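Example record

One chain of 274 residues, shown exactly as stored in the release files.
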Amino acid sequence: MAKAIFESIVSGEELLQFEQEGFLVMRGLLADEEVTELLDTFMTMHASGPIEGCFHPLPAEAAGSDILRQFPRMMHPHRVNETAKSYMLHPKVLSVLASLFGEEPLAAQSMLYFKPPGARGQALHQDNFYLKVEPGTCIAAWMALDPADRENGGMVVVPNSSQGDIQCPHLADPALSFTEDEVTVPEGLAPTPIDLAAGDVLFFNGSLIHGSYTNTSDTRFRRAYIGHYVGESTTKLGRFYNPLFAHDGQVLRREDNPDAGPCGGAEISAPIHS
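Predicted structure tokens for this chain:
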């Protein structure tokens, strides 16, 4: 793999915040025209769907009362669409990640969330419960394609929770969360909403507890494109996340991690995100 030279765009204060609190917001990292390109790409894909291995939307008459059946998340769209792949490997996103990892980042996963009006949120969880990265952890890059706030299902994080262990989750409330897993907020910590503008990117550590609100707006989608990344020194990760991609598109692999995790193997190892 050819070594990339990343120009750092993360300040010392920002790096310290990430190390201490487990997350960092980079405002306006994506330009308006880039946000538009991503929205056009994913809405065209939705209109042309389904795509095997990526997503399977249902028509309104078959979806019943669950709007997420009409607009399910896309899993690994970078594997079927070159525009999605190019933004997963966006130079500015990779530059931030290189600073946060302290080494070259490798892309493990992409996802697109439509989150239309009425869509449930996602209970608090930790990403490395699923990715099972060793050594270290993963980092997410959550790219807002619409303004994301408390009304339309924006993100919530628990600052400093990345200092703790990966938890074995309990069952979430299905009326509020479309996924089953939920973790407990450690004593002394509290969930904090993170409002984002289109083009902002939220980066967070794989141990950070985070989730999202229900979209209670009448008309507003909360679309977001998300990448999960690992450091170049990663030796193992969950089997759903191979192959990895380097900055230049080179395909790489790491050993599948058979670790049973904090639940002793009872959990469902599946790609996930808010």
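Notes: The chain is about 20% helix and 20% strand.
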